[in-house]
Design a protein that fits this description.
The protein is α/β, with parallel strands linked by helices. The chain folds into 3 domains: 172 residues, 3-Layer(aba) Sandwich (Dimethylsulfoxide Reductase, domain 2); 189 residues, Rossmann fold (3-Layer(aba) Sandwich); 112 residues, Barwin-like endoglucanases, CATH 2.40.40. Helix content is 33%, strand content 17%. Strands 16-20-17-19-18-21 form a 6-stranded mixed β-barrel. A 5-stranded parallel sheet has the order 3-2-1-5-6, sandwiched between helices. Helix 4 runs antiparallel to helix 7. The longest helix has 15 residues. It is globular.
Length: 527
């Protein structure tokens, strides 16, 4: 997040797009609703009628996968009415001319037809966001999990820069990260192109710094992404895989493809706290310790680094993850992995990472600190880009609309979209073992529109067979108007009705993020 969670409630406009906030991030949703009670305008952009959408001042029921069209039309309207921040654009950005030409291709009337949103609604959303004193953007996987997810995110950045709603409190572009330490994993270099602190692997000086600290030669080439690894296992260019804390067999799209890849591996290692479906395929399973059994740090969605402390001992045979990885490194001959504690690992990281160099265990014993924190007398950074962007000037991108890779057709006339439900997380590796959560939400329950259900002869609580070009699953359905006509929403928590069997491997060309949000399917009543 460019800004901080508490700041949300002091915004004058909260622009929530592609986020079922109250189910996926309930504590952040609390801040959103507090902002509304304090007078903020709440705008929800989502095909589904989520709880946030139901509470919103304006719910824009955008057609699946048309976010770029909608956002470009918003910005076209903002420019046409002079609602943009000309001073901010001139002083703090570049690339505006090409960007302006791109948004001019989408007058609001044209966009209305593509997005299935009334013109007057689009105009009102543009006006409220642009003319509010402080507007903040919140988004999640409804923006990123598309075959054009990077374009969606860049469009949101364009919108914030166009109006100057960035670099000040309660504003910004704020992705709500889905796991407690997914931000921390990225911060620590769990990406194919960077070392810790987003220091790029292709920079010679950076690479030499890490080579010296770690005592090993390092490649200057960018690594490959998970989808490329899966393809590599199948074609033989990748021989083995080490999966750490991820249940790929159930969480990745196109499960047939994933199972083929993992069973093709010459050597598969899985490190996890439970014997997941993925771990069952492994040649070696390494049992890690859980969150309450270890010392260390997490970095949450607002860049806040927080201490975690061991409450109980891990069960017999399980070890902290850093211990397992360190021992493996030593056995591979990496002498510099002889750590004595999680704190030593953290200290090494901060010594090599400028944005973390002022954060110490002693400091975060007393307070949580948000990076960047360049020195020990620095308080941390509540919000980013106050005076300038990290690259100097913010770069506008000229984004043009690309439809989703697999749209409905005569054979597969419905859109399948997937997501989480409030009581469970991902493949229920942990939440499925909690009896109270299981009682709350004991099985899959898809959502479909009552008009579609009526045509198919499906009653509320009945079942449908959902078929794509990859396979078919049967799921119970809840009938209503939560999803638009012509679509079905399925959660991916339950093995017996996992929509990931149905999804294709359609990837964003830049991030290689799979498209979980738009998949063509057909529906039939299940007898």
């Amino acid at each position: 997040m460019t800004n901080s969670i508490p700041e949300i409630e002091d915004a004058d406009c909260v622009f929530v797009i592609g986020s079922n906030t109250s189910e996926a991030h309930p504590l952040i949703a609390h801040r959103v609703f507090r902002a509304k009670t304090k007078g903020a305008k709440l705008i929800a952009i989502d095909p589904r009628k989520t709880q946030v959408a139901q509470q919103a001042d304006i719910h824009v029921r955008i057609h699946y996968g048309t976010d770029v069209v909608f956002l470009n039309a918003m910005m076209n309207e903002i420019l046409r009415n002079g609602w943009h921040n000309q001073q901010f654009i001139e002083e703090r950005t570049e690339g505006f001319e090409d960007f302006e030409k791109a948004v001019q291709e989408f007058p609001i009337e044209k966009a209305s037809e593509i997005c299935c949103v009334p013109v007057d609604v689009m105009r009102e959303v543009a006006r409220i966001y642009a003319t509010s004193s402080i507007s903040t953007i919140l988004y999640t996987l409804g923006i990123t999990e598309h075959s054009h997810g990077v374009d969606n995110v860049k469009s949101l950045a364009n919108l914030a820069m166009l109006t100057g709603h960035i670099g000040k409190p309660s504003s910004g572009v704020n992705p709500l990260r889905g796991q407690n330490n997914v931000q921390g994993a990225c911060d620590m270099g769990a990406l194919p192109n960077v070392y810790p602190g987003y220091q790029v692997v292709t920079d010679i000086v950076t690479r030499e710094k890490f080579q010296k600290a770690w005592g090993v030669p390092l490649s200057g080439e960018v690594g490959i992404t998970i989808p490329d690894m899966m393809d590599g296992l199948i074609d033989g260019s990748v021989k083995g895989m080490y999966i750490f804390g991820e249940n790929s067999v159930e969480s990745d799209p196109n499960i047939h493809h994933v199972r083929k890849a993992l069973t093709s591996a010459e050597f598969l290692v899985v490190q996890d706290i439970f014997l997941t479906k993925t771990a069952e395929l492994a040649h070696v399973v390494l049992p890690g310790a859980a969150w309450s059994e270890v010392e260390g740090t997490y970095t949450n969605t607002e860049r806040k680094v927080q201490r975690i402390r061991k409450a109980v001992e891990p069960p017999e045979g399980a070890r902290p993850n850093w211990v397992i990885l360190s021992e493996l490194g030593r056995r591979l001959g990496l002498k510099n992995m002889d750590y004595g504690s999680a704190r030593e690992v953290f200290d090494e990281m901060t010594s090599l990472t400028p944005s973390f160099s002022g954060i110490t265990y002693d400091r975060i014993d007393e307070m949580d600190i948000q990076w960047p924190c360049p020195s020990q007398d620095h308080p941390g950074t509540q919000y980013l880009h106050k005076d300038q962007f990290a690259r100097g000037k913010g770069l506008f991108h000229a984004i043009r609309y690309r439809p989703s890779e697999e749209m409905p057709d005569e054979e597969y006339p419905f859109i399948l979209t997937t997501g989480r439900r409030y009581a469970h997380y991902h493949t229920r590796t942990m939440t499925g073992r909690c009896q109270s959560l299981h009682r709350e939400f004991p099985g899959p329950m898809a959502q479909m529109h009552f008009s579609d259900a009526e045509r198919l002869g499906v009653a509320d609580g009945g079942s449908v067979e959902v078929t794509s070009r990859r396979g078919k699953v049967v799921t119970p359905v809840s009938v209503g108007d939560i999803v638009p006509e012509g679509s079905i929403f399925m959660d991916f928590h339950f093995e017996e009705a996992n929509p990931n069997w149905l999804l294709g491997t359609y990837l964003d060309p830049v991030s290689k993020t799979p498209d979980y949000k738009v998949c063509a399917v057909k529906l039939e009543k299940h007898l």
